Amino acid sequence: MRMRGNIALLLLMLLQCGGLPGIAVGRCVVFNFGDSNSDTGSLPAAFGFYLAEKLKISYLSPYMESSGSNFTSGVNFAVAGAAVTQTSAIPLGLDTQLNQFLHFKNRTRELRPHGAGSMIAESEFRDAVYAIDIGQNDITLAFLANLTLPDVERELAASASRVGDAVRALHVSGARKFWVYNTGPVGCLPQTLALRQKPGDELDAAGCLAAYNAAARSFNAELAAVCRRLAAEYGGNATVVCTDMYAIKYDLFANHSRYGFERPLMACCGHGGQPYNYANLKTCGQPTATACPEGERHIIWDGVHYTEDANAIVAGKILSGDFSSPRTKLKALCK
Hints:
Layout (H helix, E strand, L loop, with lengths): L6 H10 L13 E5 L11 H10 L18 E3 L17 H18 L10 H6 L1 E5 L2 H9 L4 H24 L4 E5 L8 H7 L13 H25 L4 E5 L1 H10 L14 E2 L19 E2 L16 H13 L3 E2 L10
Parallel strand pairs: 1-2, 1-3, 3-4, 4-5
Antiparallel strand pairs: 5-8, 6-7
Helix pairs in contact: 1-2, 1-10, 5-6, 5-8, 6-8, 9-10
């Protein structure tokens, strides 16, 4: 059994590792925006600590961390539960995270002449990688509002457009390198299947909620169009890469036996047993929850987040560049 991992965090740390082959300059500075898929603060990622130790590099400190922060390699503004829209119960959505970044940059400028603060140089702000990994919670929120699928898709198109607005605002501030993740198959998450499935709901070939996955694909199509428009808008003045997390992650569920995973739709840590091992208010971390036996390979750790085993596969596919448009290896942005 492997604990929950954090795929975006792994990739952020790899970017910070100046000793990786092909990186011509000293180090990468990374600014990350998003939800729990890359939040290093309120939902600590065991996978990230493991990899940091192996790679001999440090965590990307969360912006809201009150002590022990080290912002010399960038900042993680991501917060668990965040959404692009402002309808989330978490008040730290993408717009707020963007404002936090602008405040951080201005404060860095004020403190730098005094030898204080992060000491990130203007050139490092310009050459940094700006990663955005958000949208999953927007899908869930749209369905919770009891909207029809066409209405859900209209809401998600607006969310994708706002991701583009965030990229434009960052570009105005001087950012030039953007790595945008689309969202995974929300309909395959044990939490979604256990709490949102109604009698008669259609399941796809992998046993996932078809409507939720259709919404995810709709959001991703809109986001891909946004990325293409931005790339055309900026020409050679900026790099905008969109990475297909949906294709990578859905393959784990659809072809789970190929990767050695058991019970692909069942959480490793939870309550209730088969088929999903997920029960509201009895989630992983509660006294009523238990973890799967050591040695079992699961895709999902706690009903929402992927396991270390799954993320190791996902990381390899992202780093290959095969799932990025335009086809780009993540470490190439550090050149």
